[in-house]
Description:
Elements lengths: L3 H12 L9 H13 L4 E6 L3 E2 L2 E2 L3 E10 L5 E2 L16 E6 H4 L3 E2 L21 E2 L2 H5 L5 E11 L2 E9 L6 E7 L6 H20 L6 E7 L3 H17 E7 L9 E3 L7 H13 L4 E2 L9 H4 L8 E5 L21 H20 L2 E4 L19 H15 L2 E5 H7 L8 H9 L3 E4 L2
Helix pairs in contact: 1-5, 1-9, 5-9, 7-9
Amino acid sequence: MSDPGQEMHTLCRELFPICRSITGNGFRQSLEILKKHLPDLKTFEVPTGTNCFDWTVPKEWNINDAYIIDPDGNKICSFQDSNLHVVGYSTLIDKTLSLEELQEYLYSLPEQPNAIPYITSYYKERWGFCITHNQRELLKTGEYRVFIDSELKDGHLTYGELIIPGETKKEVFLSTYLCHPSMANNELSGPVVTTFLAKWIDSLKHRKYTYRIIIIPETIGSITYLSQNHKAMKENIIAGFNISCIGDERAFSYLPSRQGNTLSDQIALHVLKNLHPEFLSYSFLDRGSDERQYCSPGIDLPVCSIMRTRYGCYPEYHTSLDDLDLVTPNGLYGGFEAIKKSIECIEMTEILQSTILCEPQLGKRNLYPTISTNNSTLHVRGMMNFLAHCDGKLNTLEIAEVILTPLWELITIIDKLKQEGILRTIDD
């Protein structure tokens, strides 16, 4: 019997060593691995210099090797040991510096002395190394050789897109990013969980909605994608989630859309309230990922976020401590289930109206038990409570909230009432 949580963690382990950035071969290599699971995932290449709203696609960066040679001839801060040792987008360098000169190009975290920080410089050319503070404190006076074999040139920004068609052109949007080097929760949990969600969505026999799923570099990727697709997205997307930091076993978190009351927001709150009532709720002022772009004025997409521990709120964030021990099979599966439930609720949300004036007689339709027990009484009460609110105005999610029942627990009731002709769907 398959274990989806373990399968997701295995995929994380496969992706973890790859050096990724907002452009380059590491991103492409990672997409190719995901395409083994999603063979219909299409890859797009956008050339350097392409204007995307107020932004421009940057040069492409690739790196082969990097290290520092200390005064004793020891190789330290080796890219081969950890791709976090090099500042992202570092330019080519091969020179000798004194320790005093070198310090200007070193980054460490005194408050986390055993962690290698994650540092980037995408839009200003520079170079640098990231080092644990403990190691930095041990550096002795002398000459240091710094070597970075990298290339920054006109190339492309790469992203992946998967469209899974449904019965309507109206869309549910899932977005995740794949542009950080070896960090498990901040980076890999999102695309891995999204990959398994896409596989599950594709397996559904019936899909009311079309699903637009993208795997992009953060920020510049969402801006680039929006610049090419925002008109169709604004017309068709009814709900969406930005998927990030969803693989640890700590808290669940909710970050709203800018509007705060979209279908996505309502669904996210409904699911988390019923599955994980201890969840933490944040403000849109706490945003920090691609929801910034999706909810920006004029774009105004209904996108919110369901996360485990929110980015920036766990000590391992943007350091080498965000590793494969922090992200667990149980954590990944829990994140997967929360968004899966959200999608199920979106598919179930519709406006229903009773076809019968006054209260319907359930007994003659074999919907009322012939023997009364506590369980049967609760079942009938749930059915009658639901029917009592099917006025052609409230949708099923709103009714579920009123009668204090998870929407997914009503699916059997709804199906039976539809089969008996007691309920009809009111077209939006």
